[in-house]
Request: fold
Amino acid sequence: MTNGWVDIKNADMILVMGGNPAENHPCGFKWAMEAKRNRNAKLIVVDPRYTRTAAVGDMHLQIRTGSDLALMGAFIHYTLENNRINKEYLVNYTNAAFIIKEGFELPEEGLYSGYNAEKHSYDKSSWNYQEGGNVTGKEPAAVKFAEAKAPAAEPGKPAPAAKLPPNVAYDLTLQHPRCVYQLLRKQYSRYTPEMVERITGIPKEGILKAADLLTSIRKDGDMKKVGTILYAVGWTHHSSGSQVIRAAAMLQLLLGNMGRAGGGVNALRGHSNIQGATDMAGLYHLLPGYLGVPTPADKSLDDYLKRVTPTVSKPDEWASFNYNSNTPRFMVSLLKALYGAAATKENDFAFHYLPKVDRNYSWTELWDATLRGEVEGLFAFGMNGVAIGPNSNKNINALKKAKWLVVCEIYPDETSEFWMSPTIPKEELKDIQTTVYRLPGAGFAEKDGTMVNSARWLQWKWIAVPPPGDCKVDQEILARIFLKVRELYQKEGGKFPDPILNASWSYTDKYSPSLTEVAKELNGKALADVTDPATQTVIKAGQQLPGFAFLRDDGSTACGNWIFSGSWTEAGSMIQRRGTEDPSGLGAYPNWAWCWPMNRRVLYNRASCDASGKPWDPDRAQVWWSESAKKWVGNDVPDFKPDSAPSEHMGPFIMNPDGIGRLFVPLGGMNDGPFPEFYEPHESPVTNLLHPQQVTNPVSKKFKSPDDKYGTPAEGYNILCTTYRLTEHYHYWTKNNPMNVQLQPEPFVEIPAELADEMSLTGGEQVRVKSARGSYVARAMVTKRIKPMMIDGKKTFQIGLPIHWGFRGIKEDEGKTGHTLANQLTMAATDPNAFTPEFKGFLVKLEKA
Amino acid sequence: MGVTRRDFLKASALGSTIPAVAFGFGLEKAYAEVSELKTARTRETRSTCPYCSVSCGLIIHTIGDGAKNVTPQVVHVEGDPDHPINRGTLCPKGASLFHDIMNSRRLLRPQVRRPGSDHWEYIEWEQAIDEIAHLVKKSRDDHFIEKDDQGNTVNRCPSIAFTGGCTDTNEFNYLAVKSMRSLGVTYLENQARV
Amino acid sequence: MPKQLQIKAISGHAGPAPGKDASRDYDVCKLIDVTTCIGCKACEVACLEWNGYQFRETTFNNTYQTMPDTAWNYWNLIRFNEHTNPDGTFQWLMRKDGCMHCEEPGCLKACPAEGAIVQYANGIVDFNQANCIGCQYCVTGCPFNIPKFNPETKKVFKCTLCSDRVSNGLEPACIKSCPTGCLHFGSKDDMKELAEKRAAQLREHTAHKNAGVYDPQGVGGTHVMYVLHDIEHPEAYGGLPKNPSIAAFTQLWKGPLKWVGGSSLILGLIAAVVHFLRWGPKEAEIREDQIPPSSEEATHGN
Reply:
């Protein structure tokens, strides 16, 4: 979330799309209801089904699953053509005025310039800004830009990657045909209401009505009102998922909603600490604090830092903070935290202790490699990979190939019992050579520590009861395994033991590290006296750092995660704070827990002011420029260089090297295009109506194992299916909780009444849903809440599948369910940016069981 | 079993006697006693709901005042009214967390499924950890890549995968990153991806 | 020791209730704004958790609704109705069903067992199972089909409005849990004002031009009120009666005939008459159908 849960109450307009917060985040959704109650905010709900969120919405559009990007395109089209923008915001805070290099081409035939069909990837060098400075008001034909020289390759080395240019060319009148604004208009001119009706199945009138309502907050460019967008995995679980979110960010930039209370792009996220897991880099491509992983070409720390540290690219007259220029401080401090005294200047701060990541190792690749026998052993700490899928049968088959599997869980789950899957005949068991350890972990009430919610709040929880039986807290299980491995390397030696032997593990109880000690390590401390040049504050060696501004790249500071720096300072634990005051009334609660970065509750909040530094809406004043104090002050921590006067024209999006919000993402930002383009899901009932020659995302990946099959309408898979959660259950966990089981006892499939009529199906009958990969058995819920749709003139049905059942659970163990998993139907096909699988849209057949 | 007509008649007959009996009591107390508040003397622990990303504040009520000889027992879970987001409210999942903590389906001892076996066996912690450590070391040593084809130092262990769950705390995740990256693990993934 | 609530009325009790007019208490009220209900069932769970009831076997029934009706150990049920408006638009209506805590409670008036049902001065109508004789006249007397009989213990149960919590200064469990604030709790006057304001807001700012407050006067008003999208059609919300009233005979015997209440003989006689009148063979069958299965069948697991 760029904003926060309570902040939603400040919104005048709420678009819920790709999410269902009333069901999946009820207690956060209250703030949308508060906005409706107290501000008469409007709630637009776009979903393939009429959900419990739709039930309290002002408007519901039933969309074909997987076609969200087409509708977002229609919204952008409407915004631009009806001038629902504020030019001051657009020109100063986004790259609308920036001019793009000659040679860049829009995907009118389905592909951007630079596509390599063999490699299924783009050469993105044409997706770049033009150098040339201010050309405002000049006749485009009269403007001649100097040809930028491609950087020459050093002998024996590949050509260096293209870089953003200095002194970016821009036209503040937005008239240059290659300025981002004009390219954007051209790009989305194809997304007419008529076209989008054919793609999404939403009648044109509905599209126009929603677009008008949504953008009504910016009528005549008035900036008083604010709109927010709430989304979740209904957007990310598609083969162009990242681009849907890009489209949302673009729409919010166009509407001037970024950085503002009641605005933003808000990822609701679905689990208690996946925000924290992302922050902490529980993902192959990251190191803590969103630092990129080293690659084989990084021969030294210096190589790595040069590659990942961005350099400023902007018009000369403008300023850019480019906060990521501090990357060396973050990285060296991380290495000092990981390897302590073993990380020295001489050994590049133990840079080579870290593995060099040469390719994609993401979730679906992990299972594919396991199926190929390349992954011998797996750890699953509270992660039910078989149930989570996609393509659970593939994951089960993969685990058969593994030599060992270590599962830490609190309930019996499908992953630890994959060998008891109903898909495996008893006689096959003797051939499954996998050793499975199932270690009883501690439940949430039995352990302390912090989790990060979707509003970026780090909140500490306290232990209520000890773990039952022989259960152990997770960190003890992990520590004991790691220290035993270390012991073996100490005794026996082995391959490159250095990082194992030298990893800093100086916890008071090394076998069960105190999480307060770890939390302090995450905040960071001074290893030698450190002086802040701005304030001359001295932090003594051994003291906790006040924040990431104190991090150094010379080894004099250690910090486990720079974005958490400031969370546990010499002043104490910020993450345990319980202050309930909210002086601004904006729901910031600055003294409740702690919010990364540096307790800023709304990101990019500089954009809540006009170019001169005054709040767009004085009633929702967040930060502002104080001429007397010569700094930014206010009700939130300014997300900005504190002393940069408005006259410097510094961009509010300080993490981007250009300082502005990117309507156009230059170079490597996105793998599938600088603007979002609509592509069909990998399983779709229709061709791509925008460009039939390029139906699916050209950079998206499908897998080729024998278990990876993809169905087509020609094979009879012609019903659209989507998956989701119910408010009564949580993933594959509450099937063990009798209370939740009571509320929704059995698996079911939601089926439009018209389809049920065609099949002579009545509610409660058992049905079988079949995809190319597997089948799912459940009861039919016949409902009016999903209607048949007209997709490109053809009647099309969608059905919906709640995901919460499996092989093990209360009802499962009673033999009262079909013992199938929703994800036995879903496919491994991934988004090319986030590598998230396309769970949410696939084709099925439906029959009576 | 339904209520039969006979039950009804019995009930009616009783109905004619009970009120008279009831007259013997101190009136107000007999009629008006409401049950004792079950959380009246409990110990309150502030916690965070483990389910969705709203992270509602919880109060876990346990009996036992923290005295040494008492193992606390959870008696009730309710929303924390001070928490700025949930303000005491909970969803049906959060409201039923009592039955997550007090749940007869909990795994209580380490188990192992041996190759080819059709059942779980109990195993002592010490032995499980020892066996796992040996497996980790062997898988790592057998497949560790120090240099790639171009001679670059890569120090990768592609034969071991670590998958982290959605309720793992930041501190645990950090220890996982520290230990797994030190082993050279590149297949390091989490619920956050999916 | 919890504060004792002041008593206003007692079932089967001759003469004035102890404490009548001796003290005053403010009227409490639960307000249910169904226009902000998301049917999440948090209130169902909060009710069960607080009151410690066992789980019931439920089965899939082509609906999101947990079970067809409230039960002796399930007092609070969201009713889900897929509703088509006259203009053809679709609406999913959700309504929290439970005791209305009537100002003139039909259950209490019908109850022959002294002290089995009391009405506190704050408006809460509470059942005291220790005094319940299982005659189920309260079931008949209630226009909302709320009191439910446990065939095993032969006692009748319903929502207490968490009298134990309220007497200790806490709000009822369902109120506290409600994520969207669809449930409010406070004095009747305050709730009335809040409800009317909300209804006016709906009429002015949304498509719900018939929004209104449900506080039926046929039972003297209720201590549980609804804000409805369409006050003209309460039946659309899963059988909420448009003009609920207390059955005529209940009115009679608790009214003019009340003076005989102390006599057990006459009471038994009246009981028989009531039984005959209210539980003819045909109706009795219906009632039996509605009685939940015994608890051995009804509960499972732990």
Remarks:
- The CA atoms of residues 20 and 733 of chain A lie 19 Å apart.
- Chain A touches chain B through 166 residues (CB under 8 Å).
- The radius of gyration of chain A is 27 Å.
